[in-house]
Design a protein that fits this description.
There is one protein chain. The protein is an alpha+beta fold and 321 residues long. Helix content is 35%, strand content 26%. Strands 8-10-7-11-9-12-13 form a seven-stranded mixed beta sheet. A four-stranded mixed beta sheet has the order 3-6-4-5, with helices on one face. Strands 1-2 form a two-stranded antiparallel sheet. The longest helix is centred in the N-terminal third of the chain and has 18 residues. The protein is globular and about 65 Å long. The structure holds adenosine-5'-diphosphate and magnesium ion.
Length: 321
């Protein structure tokens, strides 16, 4: 690399995100030293984005940086956790300064927005690949899990799933859309919004939670299986954005909402006893979530339209299918 590894780290990553009191030692030594908040459980997640697999290789670099952190933030949101520290393992074909500057600005802006400090990482030469590890806190015993749901719990999803899948199709030239719809959908793919505040608040209401990254239908299936129950989704209740409807029409929009990937929304179950409190204390129109179905005893996930169970050929993105 033309730029030395040391200079690259100093220039782009030493002061990335916020500076935090609980970082005893950050970038620069062999490892970071972090002071864990007493009374909290440490929550840890890691996710890799491979060029050509998880994003188009010519994606805007700021989007690659944003998404690399956003996918991990979304995992912490699903646990009801608050993020604190990130590590970045970056594999680059070359030390291209323009690319690095934009990548770092996308990553660091999102880190600042969520009070995250970048405390270390690794930098290597090879095919473009970005791994972020994220650490955070949740009050001991209060983390949300996939496995806490019961038959009878209501199922909700945040945001408007399906948008990101359409945004990716637009990026790749597989779909055309009017300008307004196009810019909304592309942004939902390029710059997803992890639902951090919602995740933390849901600790007081939800029995189970998962982040929707591989398609709503498949991810509901994972939550239901972990909770040892099944689920029924109401096809007509799926929340659809105006942009998605304009771009692909209603039938395809509902299919994308169920099976498209990269949404980074939250899907959560709420016991009947907590419903009234949830709906009054976190008004759905203000917090941006919608009731889409119910957990039930019978295993498997059914999508019901006008009283009839629909057939689906695929239930989300399978990396090794
Ligand atoms: P070592 O060879 O001892 O692992 P490195 O040269 O890989 O040291 O890293 C030096 C310091 O820079 C370490 O503190 C490491 O955590 C940090 N670091 C390396 N790459 C990155 C990166 N991409 N982002 C943030 N910190 C990094
Ligand atoms: Mg190293």
């Amino acid at each position: 690399m033309a730029l030395s590894e040391f200079a690259l780290i100093e220039r782009y990553f030493r002061n990335c995100g916020v500076s935090r009191q609980d970082v005893t030692l950050g970038v620069g030594d062999d490892a970071a030293l972090l002071a864990v908040t007493p009374g909290c459980t440490l929550v840890a997640a890691a996710d890799t984005l491979v060029a050509g697999v998880h994003f188009p290789p010519d994606s805007p670099p700021a989007s690659v940086g944003h998404r690399a952190l956003a996918v991990n933030l979304s995992d912490l949101a699903a646990m009801g956790a608050r993020p604190a520290w990130a590590l970045l393992a970056l594999t680059l074909p070359e030390a291209a300064e323009t690319w690095l500057g934009e990548f770092a600005s996308g990553l660091c802006a999102l880190a600042r927005a969520h009070s995250v400090a970048l405390v270390g990482g690794d930098t290597t030469c090879g095919p473009l690949c970005v791994t972020v590890s994220l650490l955070g806190h949740v009050p001991a015993g209060q983390a949300l899990r996939r496995s806490g749901g019961h038959a009878g719990d209501a199922l909700f999803v945040s945001g408007t799933p399906g948008d990101a899948a359409a945004g990716l199709a637009l990026e790749q030239g597989r779909l055309q859309a009017p300008d307004a719809a196009r810019s909304w959908l592309r942004e939902r793919f390029l710059l997803p919004t992890p639902r951090m505040a919602l995740g933390e608040r849901l600790r007081a209401y939800a029995s189970a939670c998962i982040d929707v990254s591989d398609g709503l239908l498949g991810d509901v299936g994972k939550l239901a299986a972990a909770s040892r129950v099944g689920a029924q989704l109401d096809h007509g209740a799926l929340p659809l954005s105006q942009a998605l409807l304009e771009a692909v029409g209603e039938a395809h929009a509902r299919e994308l909402a169920l099976t498209g990937g990269d949404d980074y929304e939250l899907c959560f179950a709420v016991p009947p006893d907590n419903l009234t409190r949830l709906l009054s204390e976190l008004p759905p129109e203000r917090w941006g979530y919608t009731r889409i179905g119910v957990l039930r005893d019978a295993v498997g996930v059914d999508v019901v339209r006008d009283g009839t169970v629909m057939e689906f050929s695929h239930s989300g993105y399978e990396h090794f299918a």
